[in-house]
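We both want to read discrete structure tokens more fluently, so let's practise on a single case. Would you write everything just below, so we can both look at the same thing?
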Amino acid sequence: MIARCVVSMQGALLAAVVALGGIAAAGAQTYPTKVVRIVSPFVPGGMGDLLPRAVAVGLTEALGQQVIVENRPGASQIIGMQLAAKSPADGYTLVFATTTSLAINVSAFRNLPYDPVRDFAPVALCFTTPLYLVVHPSLPVKTVKQLIALAKAQPGKLSFASGGKATTNHLAGELFMQLAGVDMLHVPYKSAAPAMVDVMAGHVSLMFGAAGLNDARTGKVRVLAATTARRPTAAPDLPTMQEAGVPGFEVTLWYALVAPAGTPSAIITRLWQEIEKVLRQPALRERFDSLDVTPGSPEVLADLVKREIPRWRKVFESARIPPE
């Protein structure tokens, strides 16, 4: 009798699991039934706004439901990320996340109101781009090795600009000093734009800037290297920092889409499949030819985040940058 009850309970549990799986699959097939929102933690008009809007246009067509972008900028992308983390895990809220929001903020802020791993489900890696090491033309260097030699000959005399404490351009400069064994003065600004303006004016010696390639074309700065491990598509003739003489140097800015933790896996899979198709559209690639379009699965994105968090934490610790 007891054995029959056990078997009966096991059968009931199995049936329940199968039924739930069927419900989840059915939900994924009918999803979405209403507007899908992509939260952008950036102000309108910048790359952090234009990129998710381009993806949203393609997703609207693919999903048969409108996909909108909602800008929630501020506090180093924290406002938008926190909003998304607290949203229902039903597939109707995504957030456009970056190296900063998923890998750096956890070391930059003592009481970060979200956990980049626990609070989000990876959906897709979308874009990557390097920073570019640029110097003012008056600086008597044309290679990274020459820059290192000059910095070692004049310790503490060269200066590097950034968009502020714990920004990617700041951390790239700190990483450069650590790996190259040089000492430079950090000059933080309120954002990267005025920082680059002062480099072009010759008030600061150099900068690791996202727009460095475009600025170099004007002749106002000289670009020495790209910070990614591989040469960027936009500048195939430009050496990487590693090729230029700084082994182990790599700084990649990446942009991704994540959802609130607990979003059904079937919906995550559907979103990833459609996003990948959108990212492979030639028109999108041509529009953002300054970036590398790098579709990556939820598993690829999860692995990237888990690798990047401790790597940036080490830079913070080595540079003794205290969290805010």
Observations:
- The mean pLDDT is 92.
- DSSP finds eleven helices and eleven strands in the chain.
